[in-house]
Amino acid sequence: SKQSSSPSAPFDFETYMFEKANNVNKALDQALVVKDPTKIHESMRYSLLAGGKRVRPILCIASSNLLGGRESAAMPAACAVEMIHTMTLIHDDLPCMDNDAVRRGMPTNHKVYGEDAAVLAGDSLLAYAFEHLAVATAAEGVSPERVVRAVGELSGYVGGSLVAGQVADIFSQGKSDVGIERLEFIHVNKTASLLEAAVVMGAIVGGGGDGEIERLRRFARCVGLLFQVVDDILDVTKSSEELGKTAGKDLVSDKTTYPKLIGIEKSREVAEELSEEALEQLAGFDPVAAAPLIAIAKYIGYRNN
Ligand code: GRG
Predict the structure, then answer these.
(1) Is this complex's ipTM strictly greater than 0.85?
(2) pTM of this prediction?
């Protein structure tokens, strides 16, 4: 059978992602137990354990591991960032926001549990993420200084970036004057922020120095932006294929995207630049230890769905 844990074996990305996602799923399952009142805990677990690629927690573990940190010490931070990602999805799907009926191939939280429970499940996940991060990371023997720093980073990204990105996105919908700077602001805050939080927290609990933490922060920002640019490109190319036309749905919808603003070729160049800039940040690290982060960046840049 395939083994990604042997240091001499070549790095196998798919096995790595599969193993890590499994470990994350187990840890999430154990972190959030059903208590009284059961409905709210079941609602939280419904969305938390609904699948998803687990890109953020895996980035957190890989970042920690690059600096010599143990997976078990990074797992609470990895789970915390996925809890927050999940709560943003629950709230984003609500009728007062995007009003979506399906998420991760399943009915959205409020469709199953009602709007009242969905709002509270999101709120509860948000607070519980910080409790879990603080208590479980400390229990792993990580120093109080590093635990406090990780809590500060995550809360800063959530309160300072995530909400700002969502607000900017909502306010720019239907507007024709959204420029490239505004679009980048939305993506950096709405999407890159949690990927950055994941990588930075991994570096902190993994014992990284300030220089290492900052290099990994820049890596994650590039990867986060790359994620969105590629998403925009795929939206156009996928829908063109589906429609058998040259113009995809994104070129006619009211959502601002990179291809719409700068064209598909230039968008591909931006993606290429971001990918290179991300990989440059890892140049000073041991290439074998950095293999998972390099592979994740490449996967995000070159995926085709
Ligand atoms: C934090 C208080 C507070 C409110 C949140 C609702 C909101 C404010 C923000 C929403 C942000 C949002 C929906 C960002 C989209 C991020 C994104 C790229 C989602 C898709 O991520 P994937 O592809 O999804 O990693 P899976 O399902 O694989 O996890």
Answers:
(1) yes
(2) 0.93
